[in-house]
Amino acid sequence: QKQKILCLIHSKERKEKPFRIMVRFHQSLGIIIPMSLFSRTFRASSAFVPNVAIASVTHTAAFSTARISPKEIVKRDIARPIASMSPSFSSPPSSSLRSMKIRPHQMRTTARFATEEVSSYEVDEDEDTEQLLADNSISDSPMEINGVNGDAAPAPNGEAAVPFREVLTSVGIYDKIKTIRDMPEKRPLSQNDVFCNRELKLSALKAMGFDMDYTLAQYKQPAFDKLAFEGARDKLVHALGYPEDVLDLEYDHTFWVRGLIIDTQRGNFLKIDRHKYVRLAYHGFNPISSITRKHLYSRTFNKVPSFTEKSFVNMDTLFQHVDAHLFASLVDMKDRGEYEFLDDRTYEEIYRQVRQCVDLCHRDGVIKDEVARNPEKYLVLDDGLFPMLKSYRDAGLKVFLLTNSYWEYTSVVMNYLFHEEKVGKEEQKKNSWLDYFDVCIVGSCKPAYLVDPYLNLFRVKPEDGSLLNTDGLFEIEALGPDGANKFLEQGKTFQGGNWNHLQAMLEIDAGEEILYVGDHLYADVLRSKRTLGWRSAFIVPELSDEMRVFSENVPLRKKITELRKLRDELSIYGDMLRRTSADPDSEEIKAKLQQIDEDDAVIKDTLAQMAGQYHAAFHPVWGQMFNAGYQDSRFAFFVQNYACLYTSKATNLGLSSINRSFRTGGEMLPHDRLLADADSEFSS
Length: 684
Fold this sequence. Notes:
The chain is of the alpha/beta class. The protein has 26 helices and 23 strands.
C-alpha cells in the first residue's frame, strides 16, 4: 500500500516538480499517516492535497475510535486525487476542492473524514494566504496597484471624508465597497471596548464560562478590601501575638498596582519588564537605589532570578493588594528595630503569616458575613450582566460559572446582582439566577481544578448548601446515551471536581470550544490556556483609567518617542563617521563625536524628566501598569501571550453579538517597524 500511494502522488498532470510524501503504517490504529509533505508549488487544481491532509494528524489519538485498513483509506481518500490527476478521469470543480480542506486542529475524536469542523481560531476566509505564500502559489502576475506607495486619488469636491478611501482606491476596489460610505470617519473607541491578542470567532464557541469575584461581581474599593485588611490585622495581633501597634495600621489601596512581584525573602516589591529586568524596586514603602537594585537582581553571575521561585509572589489579582499593604507595613515596622517580636522573624515568615490570616478572613465569615448583611456597601451592580448571559444562551452557547468561592457566599453575591437588592432568606433559597447557567461550580480550587484530574466532584443542594457524593465521569458514562443531560437533570450545582467533569457535562471535546472569562492572570487565564487550550478573556478593571490617562498624554508620549528615536539616530551617525572617515582619529572627527555625546546627554536629561512626568500621570509610584521603563511590563507580556481577549469588565463582552470575530492588528519586529517608518530609507 505504501508503494501504491507513493506512485499515485508522483503522477504528474503538468510539468512540475513531483510532490513527495513519506508515509508510515500505524499498526495499532490501522491507518496510514503522512509524516511530511514537500512541494515547491501548490496549485488550486492539486486536488489530492486536501485529501492527503485528512490523514495527517498531530495527535494520533484523533483516530483512536476508528480502525481503518490501508486498503480502505486508499479507496476512500485517494480515489478522488486519482480522478483529478489522471487524464482518463474528469477533474472535480475547484469549488469542491476548497471545501475539502481539513486541518489538524479540526480533527475530532471520531474519524469524520468528510466533515469540516469550525474552529474558534478561524476568523477569516483568507487564512490560507500565508501558506500560499510559503508554497509560492501566488499568481505570477502581480495585482495592479493604482498610485505609488499607497497614494490615493483625492476625494471629489464636496464629498464627505470616507474611511479607508486611500487604500481602497490604491487597490482599485473603492467603487465596489458600498458599506464604507456609511461608516464613521474614525473608529469609535471607548473604555468598554474588548481588545484582541489572538483571533477569536465567537460563533465557533460551544461554551462560555465566568469566574465570579472581580469578574461577574465587581467590588467597591477600598471598602471591600478593608474587610480583609482589618480582619487579618486583628488575627495577627490576637491570634499570633504581633505587637498591639499593628492594630493602628491603615489600608491604602492606591499605593499598589497589579503586576508587581513580592520578594518575600527580602521584603521587597518589584516591577520588572518582559525580559525579567527589574526596573523599579521598593523595600516596604521605601524606594531602593539603582545601585542596590542592580546588585540584588542583575549583577550576580549565573544567578539571574527567574522570579518563579517560591520566594517570589506575583500580584496577579486585586485581592493581593491587601497582602501587599499589610506586608509592607510590617516590613517597615521590623526595620525600625523597635519590636523584639518582629526581630525574631524573617521577612518570609512574616509574609507567610500575613497570607494565612488574609486567607482565613475569606473562609471564616469575616468577609462573607459582612457582605451578606450589607451587599450594597460592597458590590457594584451592572444592569448588563444577566441580559448578556441570556443572549449567549439564546444563541446556543452553554454558559457556566466556575468560581473558588463556596456556595453560601456565591449565593449571596449572585442573588444580589440578580435582584439588584438584598432579598430575604426564602427568596434567596430560590436562587433564580441559576436559570442563566447550564452548570455552576463553586469551591473549584483553581488553579488545581485546571491541572489535577483526580479531584472529586460533589453535588450541592442549593436549598441548604449540603453536599452529596458523585461518581463523576463514571456516573455520567453509566447513565448511557445522553448521560450528561441525565446527570445535570439531578442538579447542576457542584463543588470541586476538575476540568474533565466540566467538559463531560458540557459535552465538549476540544478546549478551543470554551471561552473562559476571569480576573486572575495565573489561575484563570494562564493555566486554562496553557494546560487545556481554552480560549481566554482577561478582566482588567484598571484598564478604564489606563486608557483615559494614555489618551490624555498622547502628545507627551509622541515627544518621548521622537526624542528616543533621535538618540538612536545620533548613535548611528556616530558609527557612520567612525566607519567612513579616512582618519577616525583626526581632530575634526573627534570634535564631531564629542559633540554627538554632548547632544545625547542633553536629550537624555530631558527624556528622563519627560518620562518621569509621563509615568507619574498613571501612578505616582509604579507608573504605567503595562509598561516598565520603555519596555512592556511582565504583566503586559503575560496578558499578550495568554489572554485571547481583555477588557475592563465582563459585560463589555455582551456588547458584541455572537457573530462577532475579533481580529488582531499586525505584529512587527523592530526591523519591520523601521522599514515601515516614513522617515526611514532602505538601501539593499
